[in-house]
Amino acid sequence: MRRFARRHLALRGLPAAVAAIAVAATGTVASGAAYVVTSQPKTGQSETGRATPGRTPAAAARPTTVVPASEQPSALKHVVPPDFLIISGQPVSKRQLAKVSKLAHVRDVITVDAGAIRLQGGQANMFAVDPARFRAWTPLDTATDDALWTALGRDQFVVSDDVQRQLGLRSGMQYAIQGRTQLMATMGGAGSLGLPGINVLVGRTAGRRIGLVPDIGLLVNAPGADLDTLQSGLRRAVGAQSQIINLHEKQYQPKASKKSGRPTSYLQLYQQAAGTCPGLSWTVLAAIGQIESDHGRNVGPSSAGALGPMQFMPATWRSYGVDGDGDGKADIMDPFDAVPAAAKYLCASGAGRGSLSKAIWAYNHSQAYVNAVLSLAHSYARRFS
Questions:
Q1: Which of 26, 92, 105, 90 is nearest to 58 (CA)?
Q2: Residues 81-125 pLDDT 10s
Q3: Where do transmembrane segments lie in this chain (predicted)?
Q4: What are phi and psi of 144, to 5 degrees?
Q5: Of 206, 224, 249, which residue sits at a domain end?
């Protein structure tokens, strides 16, 4: 499903594409240790006619900064699985962003500040984000972890699970983050970040103080797009110098969360839930999930009163709702509960016994709906065969 895939790579062995985040320049501090400095584009004119910022003084000339607390982010309202990660050679201009937004099937885009940093003796790649907006673009297990986003809202930093393990980082401890300047910040937690080579997240205020390059990263969500066609369009929109990473390539396919074992994407969630009903294909759940809520983007209530990512009526939920994630409650709004509940309902209606059309009809009494689900399920099967 072109909007599901979640990718996660370790600190070492990063893809070449990450080098474009911010070409790392190596300097030497008094101790002789190397540090990584984020590079900025040279002063010049952008597509919008505005001068782009030039290089600022080296880190050694700047004092250490302690990041203050700030507002907590808002609650997760929907998910926006990214299809492409773009690392541009210079900040993405408003004109380029408009071109990307006008491409066929593109529904959402988000820009981030980015750069290479030094943390606890290791090199990492950092995104500076708006926590309230960016959480929707992360794997499900991370997007639903309120503690991580509260930490980012307090100007703490968050790392990938692998980086936490490799560098021996501990939540609640302060660490020096060395970019263009050095900044002391508290680690707020770890999780799957879902983007190849991106190891650390901070808020945009902290990112500016570290010296990350503004708006050099771009995530694109385009449900239903032909990925090859879209990639060509993106290259025309942002320029041949940009790194454009198709997040659906095999090496970036999702893995279950090492912490909880829970799915980290809707793709995994549909696949796991389908396994509870022998004979039911995950593609049917995916098709229903797209039609009903666009995979959690529009969770209702509908005009008929249906709720959640799989759009259950409350009365039906009382009979078929399940506690899919073992947190002690069956929550109609929680995808970890709603998707397996949909599988349960379809199974009870005959989906696993050769009566798929009848089961889909039971879900929504419309032959047009049945036809749409089956057609979309076939499309997913072809895409992921």
A1: 26
A2: 899 999 998 899 999 999 999 999 999 999 999 999 999 988 899
A3: none
A4: -95, 5
A5: 249
